[in-house]
């Protein structure tokens, strides 16, 4: 908790686009609990665990099954703030169909920004990624470091950052965009992702006794727990405009910058008998070690879960059956590939049977 955290939340109505995903499934119940009236806009590509989770909480939650590519402004009725978590959320899934990725991650995200400007939304918090840094020539990349996005995913993130900040600059302070560049997330969520580095390595060590490392494993990643990332969105919603408006913040903590090889070694120590397999063929073009001073000193952001704690959390969740290793949806690219095979991710695809629902 910090001075801008949920405990001091002023409430209000917030739209969370992509709110049924890995981050949203943690963030949305926190917002509801903090007194926000929450509208979730999502295609529910990964299911409806959010409805079950949130129904146990007091407060107001509305789930709207719609596509960000053709949503209209009715979803923003009475909305004061937007959190945009929506889109295709990793490199290989974005590469499945670049045109669809661009339509969703750039076209859909731009559409929501325009709608928000039209209806007078003030605070707009966008989930970007530290992957916009791409390949770092040096350590400790700050928000001012030149970006070098290596993938379509990272390029789409940077495009929306630039659009948002340009809109903010033109709005004389009325529109307050905030960009959060999240580190690589880890940890357990109701919409589980086993395609994220730490989660994936723990899963393969547990299930196959093997930890796969791309290249020599010397590449850096800034890790951050999914619950800590969720708290950063609440901070960004509550902080005074003078601190966050038109700003970009790296979200993470310095001590969670780890090299992949060291992560593999720690997982191996926790799961004795597993072997580390280095793949010379699979080079990793991403390498970034990030500076988090701005989030710490200006927003009071801190992380409650370390990388080591995260390894134990995921092992425990697998061991206790809290997460299902056989749920295909927990591998994002595999699941999107299956959806593409069904319909090409068309606008009207009936992916899951989540109706528009209101839980009051
Ligand atoms: N997980 C990470 O490590 C990480 C790191 C940095 C940044 N981010 C960013 O944070 C955000 C949230 O990530 P996540 O891990 O929760 O991803 P996720 O894939 O779990 O969630 C994305 C959500 O968007 C929805 N969605 C996708 N296309 C849609 C469309 N056309 N219309 C409506 N809904 C659609 C999906 O159904 C899903 O619920 C993403 O923007 C991601 O790029 C994530």
UniProtKB/TrEMBL annotation:
| Name by which UniProt lists this protein | Nucleoside-diphosphate-sugar epimerase
Q: Which organism is it from?
A: Pigmentiphaga litoralis
Q: State the superkingdom.
A: Bacteria
**Sorted alphabetically, which InterPro entries does this protein's record hold?**
Epimerase_deHydtase, Lipid_A_modif_metabolic_enz, NAD(P)-bd_dom_sf
Q: Which SUPFAM superfamilies match?
A: NAD(P)-binding Rossmann-fold domains
Annotated NAD-dependent epimerase/dehydratase domain residues: 14-252
């Amino acid at each position: 908790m910090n001075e801008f955290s949920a405990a001091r939340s002023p409430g209000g109505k917030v739209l969370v686009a992509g709110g049924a995903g890995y981050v949203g499934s943690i963030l949305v119940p926190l917002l509801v609990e903090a007194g926000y009236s929450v509208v979730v806009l999502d295609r529910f590509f990964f299911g409806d665990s959010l409805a079950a989770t949130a129904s146990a909480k007091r407060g107001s939650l509305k789930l709207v099954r719609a596509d960000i590519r053709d949503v209209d402004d009715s979803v923003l009725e009475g909305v004061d703030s937007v959190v945009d978590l929506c889109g295709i959320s990793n490199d290989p899934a974005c590469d499945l169909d670049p045109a669809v990725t661009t339509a969703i991650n750039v076209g859909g995200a731009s559409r929501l920004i325009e709608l928000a400007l039209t209806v007078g939304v003030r605070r707009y918090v966008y989930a970007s990624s530290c992957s916009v840094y791409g390949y770092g020539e040096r350590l400790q990349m700050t928000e001012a470091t030149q970006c070098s996005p290596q993938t379509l995913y990272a390029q789409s993130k940077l495009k929306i950052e630039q659009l948002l900040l340009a809109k903010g600059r033109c709005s004389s302070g009325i529109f307050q965009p905030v960009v959060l560049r999240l580190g690589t997330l880890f940890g357990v969520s109701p919409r589980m992702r086993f395609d994220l580095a730490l989660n994936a390595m723990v899963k393969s060590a547990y299930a196959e006794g093997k930890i796969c490392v791309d290249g020599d494993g010397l590449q850096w990643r800034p890790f951050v727990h999914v619950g800590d990332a969720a708290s950063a969105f609440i901070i960004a919603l509550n902080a005074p405009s003078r601190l966050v408006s038109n700003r970009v913040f790296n979200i993470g903590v310095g001590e969670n910058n780890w090299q992949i090889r060291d992560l593999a070694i720690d997982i191996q120590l926790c799961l004795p008998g597993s072997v580390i397999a280095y793949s010379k063929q699979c080079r990793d073009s991403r390498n970034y070690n990030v500076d988090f001073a701005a989030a710490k000193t200006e927003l009071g952001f801190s992380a409650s879960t370390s990388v080591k704690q995260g390894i134990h959390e995921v092992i425990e969740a697998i061991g206790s059956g809290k997460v299902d290793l056989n749920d295909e949806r927990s591998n994002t690219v595999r699941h999107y590939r299956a959806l593409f095979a069904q319909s090409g991710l068309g606008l009207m695809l009936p992916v899951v049977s989540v109706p528009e629902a209101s839980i009051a």
